[in-house]
Amino acid sequence: MRNTLLPADAPRLGLGLAALGRPGYINLGHGQDLGAAKDIEAMRQRTFCMLDAAWAAGMRYFDAARSYGLAEAFLGEWLRDREHSAVVGSKWGYTYVAGWRTDADTHEVKDHSLNTLQRQWPETLEALGRRPEVYLIHSATLDTGVLEDQAVLARLAELDAAGVRVGLSTSGPRQADTLRRAMALQVEGLNPLSVVQATWNLLEPSAGPALAEAHAAGWAVVIKEAVANGRLTARGLTGHGDVPPVLAELADKQNATPDAVALAAALTQPWADVVLSGATTPEHLENNLGALHLSLTPVHQEQLMALAYEPTAYWQARSGLPWT
Description:
The chain is of the alpha/beta class.
């Protein structure tokens, strides 16, 4: 069994840098959180601040990707400057093309070809200044064909043999189908993939059974978007989303914030090895960390799971979120 990604004494919350490594992202209120200073140096200092706060809270898993602007470079600089040892996950398959603009027509371009993998792996090494512990196909889906590309899989098998845990992240309404296909892969008699990063939250829990299967098979499971890009936060309850009041009511009873309850719901899942916070401010991170101290009863969990959308409707709504 290879589920463990974290040191034994580390909390199961990690920090994702999707909203920190570039000036534009789709979290509700992202532009407001960053303020007017969105130049590279301002973003570097913000990222260092958030990484320092996460480290001080005991967090040891940090997630980046080639398409997260300068997230890998910021993280690599921070690790060298602070001389910290952490578990780093990164991803290949998307290229950042927004040119540091929030109003770009296109922010990232997806390509799961061997050429992209061969180009981006050295770029990741240079940006981080070392190998990541985890390296994932970014948003693998059945329609890209990446899980049928024997050249890509053979290269990932080489990285796995060299000690890098390889896997995939998933997105879209068919996450479970994609994951089950990935679990069935065989490359030279072995499956090189052993990590999955998937969207799971109270609005979109449909991948849960497949994630449980992966965990039981020894895969490490990382949860992303546990607060649904801000829709399961106080912002999502005040005109920016369509979350029923049960989340706010339960948060109030627990003396916590809605995002803490949403993250606690993810942490409650027995197959979740790491749950990512996407915080961009120290206040957000402090609220998110409250999830570690919440205890949700089976009744609470049943009430919260009633918030789930039909998967296609959820992903259609997500695709309509603006980049700010």
